[in-house]
What we know:
heterodimer, A: 220 residues, mainly alpha, 3-stranded antiparallel β-sheet, 6% strand, B: alpha/beta, FAD/NAD(P)-binding domain, 8-stranded mixed β-sheet, 6-stranded antiparallel β-sheet, 22% helix
Amino acid sequence: MKRREFLTLPAAAIGGTLLYTLAGEPMRLQAQNGTVKVPLRFFTAEEARVITAACARILPSDASGPGATEANVVIYIDRQLAGPYGRDKYRYTRGPWVESYPEHGYQGKASPSETYREGLKMLGDFASLSPDNQDAKLRSIEKSHFFQLLRQHTIEGMFCDPMHGGNAGLIGWQLVGYPGPQMSYRNEVDKHFGQPWRPKPASLEQIAGRPGKPWEDEKS
Amino acid sequence: MTNLKPVDVAIIGGGWTGLLTAKEITEKTSLSVAVFERGGPRRLADYAVTMDELDYNIRLRMMQNTAEETITHRHSLKDSAVPVRQHGSFHPGTGTGGAGEHWGGASFRFLPDVFTLRTHLLQKHGAARLPEDLSIQDWAVTYDDIEPRYWKAEQMMGISGKAGNLRGQKIDGGNIFEGPRRQEYPTPPLKHSYASSMFEAAVRRLGYHPYPTPAANLSEPYKNPDGIMRGACQYCGHCQRYGCMVGAKAQPSNLLMPVLARRKNFEFRTGSWVRRIVHKDGRATGIQFTGENGEEFFQPASTVVLASFTLNNSRLLLLSKIGTPYDPNTRKGTLGRNLTHQVGTNTRVFFDKPLNAFMGAGELGSRISDFDGDIGFTGAEGEPLRLGMIALSMNGRPPIGSFGIMPQGASKSNWGSEWKKTALEWTDRSASIGLAGEHLAWRENYMDLDPAYTDKFGDPLLRFTLNWTDHEYKQREFAEQIQARIAREMGAKFDEGRRPRDRYNVINYQSTHIQGGAIMGTTPENSVVNRYLQHWDVPNLFVIGASSFPQNAGPNPTLTVLALTYWATEVMTDRYFKHPEKLI
């Protein structure tokens, strides 16, 4: 049996929301010495460090606000790749496999999880490079299917509902002023014209009063 | 293969058309009706915790599973097709209610001249000025035929809107170009948002005639003629690609299933994947389907109604060898002919002030029909034959999908520090002026069975041969000029400059308005079904849906699909069941 891998994160970075994102899961968070250990479903701890570093160049933590690292984007990606999406459960995967026009989209055989395994080889010891060299590395693979997935997944993990593992502490929604899936704007939609109206964000579970059922947790 | 107990009517597909057909037949007759839906069951309560952009808007959790079945696409007769491996340019639904659950709710009547398009264009331009490959034809019904059925569909759903032509009287604030309506809409229009009100004011200043999008998202509580009560839209912004968590959006699950659940002569079988319509000597004898656990069934039936999505209507007829497949070289044959989608183009508009665009409704918006059909066109150089509606809709801008929307060239990269900063600056400051353009039918755009790719059972996939022609490019370029004029009047920043004349693209979402393949017409030589949607060759088979549209009409098709369903079922219950033979 494969040894269970964990990602160690400072507890402070996670805030209060990560705990409930694992509700219903057989795995548990373990707080130790101001850090928490998040069980990984797909990546090894080393792979998670590489992906964390790469996501941090796509959405950096900088003067314009927190980035992929604070949102725990890597945990989001880890769960997606381990779930039905990562395994291509909902993509047409019969041959013949032929390359076609760009208008026909990705026609490759590799599933998202397989694409990441290949992509990790391209990234190599990415986590140990300087930020400039990291950017140069990413620019060199910018056109690859892997990078396009990584970029898209980084945005998804930054701004998804926290039940998917990213957007920790609703940090992505705070960054863009998105209030979460509120039940009603009936009394607001035709007001605040030209003015930013930014209610305090809340997650789907906080709003609905019961947990959602993220697709990645679907039993296959 | 297990033989089941015969039913009077077997209906294939549990979406809007199949369930509405079942409701009408079980209401007016005592015939036994069974609906076969390949997807799973669904209840309104399911939608309470599904307001999740990732799973529903991005991963498309409500749609058909492309791993089991998809379509293939090629641009021309010379190419070989490749599969559409993930949903892109349109979104077929599945499960109870089908695409009627995740739709946005736009509910238009088509312009009267849409129904006599070929005659209209011949009169206007003369045969010599119409391109030879144009494959358009008149519908076999007129606006007057289905006007009362439009009203039935509007009442059933409680459409929110404002009439612009009440029995010939033009009313400012409604769509003054629409065909005459006998009644005002059942409920008043939805509210406006900041962006849609700016659009409305700008087009009015330009001399156009804005009106609120008629919507199946209720503006106020409403009780329909079946006694179904629904509450008002909450403008939560989770509409298209979601089911409505309060049931304010008209969906088969909240309007048809509750009525059908009380009918003793109705049966609903989910998880039943219909593989063939079985027929002998010009009569359908029933349907063959595969159950959830892989077991095979034969369901004998006196009448079969094929009421699945456009794609599957054509595919099942092809697989069942009913009718003559269309040949684009000889233009002979009818099945699969006149595949149309929708012509669209968007001009993204950017503002100085925030829009609070996370608020919205499926069809909250303002639009103009000043260029719909061929209103105002004289046949001058540069004009397309037909155009469509131009609109600004605010249906709830989600945080993942909208991050990074910025004016062209605002950031050098599409990742990294500078990009992130720029994306944040432009967050919540953009909207889009769209086109719902009429897509004409062309000789080479059609459907048949793919020679190489198969579904999970090994049956051939449906193949699209579909590309844009010069006419569609002309439509887009003409619309972009109008959109630019409106954008300027709104004081918005927008990307100017001509856009490339790109080929048909299966990746980017356009609309789920796929039409044709089993079109209606006046003779078996020009159509698959007659004006009552009865198959010409197999009189106890009806084929209902947008598959019967001879060509796309521009506006969203659902209301017309429902009106045609009322039209066909009235004939079934009034005449056909008494004498189940050819109606024409």
